[in-house]
Amino acid sequence: MEREVRAALALGSDEAVRAELERLAARPYFGNFTWLWAPALAKRNRVVFRPFILAAFDREALDGNGESFDPWKGRAAGALQALLDEVDAADDVELTRRLYTWKLEHQPDRGPGWSEDVVRRFRAAATAAARHTALAKVDPGAWPGIDPAAAVALWRIDRAAARRFILAHLPWRTERAAWQALLDESRGVDPEFHFELYRKVVDEKSWRDDVLALARTPEVSAELERRHPALWTLSPAGVFHALLDKHGEAAVPYVRRHVGSVAPRQGLLGAEDKLIALAAKRGWLELWAALLRTSATHERFNAEIRALVRAGDRARLVLIPGRGREAHGPGWSVGRTQLLTDEAACALYAAFPALVRGPYRLHVTPWWRESFPGLARAAIAAGDDDLVDYLASRVAANPQGGPSHAAAVDVLAVHYERLAEAAFVTRAARALSRIPAFGIWHYPALVEKNRLARLLFEHSTARYLADGAAVRDLLESSQIHVQLLGFRILGQDDPRAAPIAAAHVDLLAATLLRRMRPGSRRLAFAALRSAARHDEATARALLGRMRDALALPDRRYPVEDLVGLIGGVLQRWPGLRAPREQPVIYGEGAA
Predict the structure, then answer these.
(1) Are the beta carbons of 266 and 235 closer than 8 angstroms?
(2) pLDDT tens digit string along 278-337?
(3) Do 373 and 485 have their domain in common?
(4) Of the residues 443, 460, 490, which one is the last residue of a structural domain?
(5) What is the number of other CB atoms lying within 10 angstroms of the CB of residue 7?
(6) Are residues 504 and 477 in the same domain?
């Protein structure tokens, strides 16, 4: 790679150099030679090659032998430093920032040295705009943390330009005492900055002392909010208890907003248990219920439910259900839900069955440790088909678990095996259609180890053809393995399959153009073949989609199978053939 890069840089015209480097950039390790080609390109024509430099820039450096090295020392250092000085003088913010950060990574004293350089550059800038530019050029991201003394210096020079930069570059670990000077200076002139800094550097003891020193007023909730720490390492349960004990109802809205920060068993004395007890004693039922959802241990949550069931207190039971702590990010979400024990679920179902069928359903969701066999028996005995099907949808998706799971599998499998044909088809399809997307991770292991899954997925394929509406439920499921079951059902060599497939042609046609694995698509092709056999109108509607699918760019698309599918449709319905698809007979007998 080094040899080819050097050869490309030796070409005569900028166009030739750019074309050759773009070809090389598609190969591995090209970016690792940024130390070589970036200074050369900038020296040749920085304006022309700047977009390419930014697009291919990489801070990992390799030499011609494939060994990592520090490019800011030795033979490459001079060219890189000259490029950094050039773009820095030209106020090329993005390129300066990348080169500066690259150099900073290789400096042993990058923390103190960087802070000093930031102050020097900031002080040398003559205008507010120049100071913003100076900070942007030397902004390496979240590291290293700025020195408190440097932060004070920046603040005194231009607090408007420095405030965001300081907050964005606080050290990961720091002490409030180190930042007291900046806190004191900012309190009167910029309260917003002061409290944002306070929240990021305060320690638990200082925070507790500060908030408990606040006067008891109706507006105390807003003052508490201004001082709420932005650090996840603090344990707020004890502080919340003291605040509620001192300020009473005025502090409830504040604690309610931050109830998710109280994790189970925080503190040596179980402060969250005392917090829950205080909320219940004072009648702050919304806060009490939120604490049970987010902060109570599994044992405490179930003990509260059992006590309320024994007392017949439906009013309080209604307040508790719901998800607790949640976290969200790009493309993912995680939520914590308190689960009942089988014993508590059975007691609640016996007293208030509507609550279990409704708001408490998410608290009786079977999983590997608790699959609610007792609740399943009670629901079966009560004829509660909807709850039974819900439990089956979750139990049938897990290949294995503890003794509770094995018991639930047996209870539910026996129940579905004893159902009459029509009832089985309707109920089984309803249970399968409720399995959530991505709820099945390894289908072969599931049907091997789970008796209920084998019954619903493998042993009853032909039985589903007794009810077309049940088949549609399977096709509309969000779980791909349930959809595949629907394809397998309609692809059977059974005279009942074709009319049902034709009735659901709207769902089947979409499989031609959606993203699917080749094996899954072939199962869909079998269902499409059944639909096309039913009547010419259905075949005509599908044939256009099939021809469109031939133009898809998916390299994994089983084109040969699709061509065979189209051929089968044209053979079954000759009237659908286009002129170029008519058979041509060659030879003397053709006349």
Answers:
(1) yes
(2) 999 999 999 999 999 998 989 999 999 999 999 999 999 999 999 988 888 888 888 889
(3) yes
(4) 490
(5) 11
(6) no
448, 381: one domain = yes
Confidence of residue 591 (pLDDT cuts 50, 70, 90): low
Give the torsion through C-alpha atoms of 298, 303, 304, 309, to 10 deg: 130
pTM: 0.80
Tokens of 389: 């099907």
> Could you read off the pLDDT of 314-330 as tens digits, one per residue?
999 999 999 988 888 88
Distance CA 485, CA 462 (A): 11
Query: Do 33 and 77 share a structural domain?
Result: yes
Residues 486 and 384 in one domain: yes
Lookup: tokens for 103: 């150099």
- Tokens 């089985």, located at residue: 424
Please give the C-alpha separations between residue 355 and each of 14, 347, 366, 374, 387, in angstroms, as whole numbers: 74, 11, 17, 17, 11
Could you list the residue range(s) of the whole structural domain that residue 420 is in?
A: 365-490
Runs of H (alpha helix) within 215-313 = 220-226, 237-247, 252-257, 271-282, 285-294, 298-311
Q: Mind giving me the DSSP string for 17-62?
A: HHHHHHHHHTSTTSGGGHHHHHHHHHHHHHHHHHHHHHHH--S--B
Answer yes or no: is pLDDT of 268 > 50.
Answer: no
Mean pLDDT of 159-167: 95
List residues bridging with 332 in a β-sheet: 329
DSSP letter for 454, please. I
Q: Cα 156 to chain center, whole Å?
A: 42
Q: Nearest Cα to 523, choosing from 475, 570, 567, 569?
A: 475
530 and 458, same domain (yes or no): no
Site of tokens 């068993």:
265
Rounded-to-integer distance, Cα 177 and Cα 198, Å: 11
Q: What is the Cα–Cα distance from 321 to 301, expressed in whole angstroms? A: 11
Number of domains in the chain: 3
What single-letter DSSP state applies at residue 64?
A: T
Quote the CA–CA distance of 228 and 224 in Å, as a whole number: 6
Q: How confident is the model at residue 262 (pLDDT cuts 50, 70, 90)?
A: confident
CA 304 to each of CA 277, 374, 531: distance values in angstroms, whole numbers, following the listed order: 11, 20, 55
> Which helix (DSSP H) or strand (DSSP E) does residue 578 occupy?
none
Query: Is 191 domain-assigned?
Result: no
133 closest CA partner among 91, 100, 84: 91
Averaged pLDDT for residues 574-586: 86
**Assigned domain for 310 exists:** no
d(CA 460, CA 475): 16
Measured CA to CA, the distance from residue 90 to residue 86 in angstroms comes to 6
Q: How many residues does the chain have?
A: 591
The DSSP output letter for 228 is -
Domain contains 498: yes
Contact of 84 with 103, CB cutoff 8 Å:
yes
Q: For residues 40 and 9, is the Cβ–Cβ distance under 8 A?
A: yes
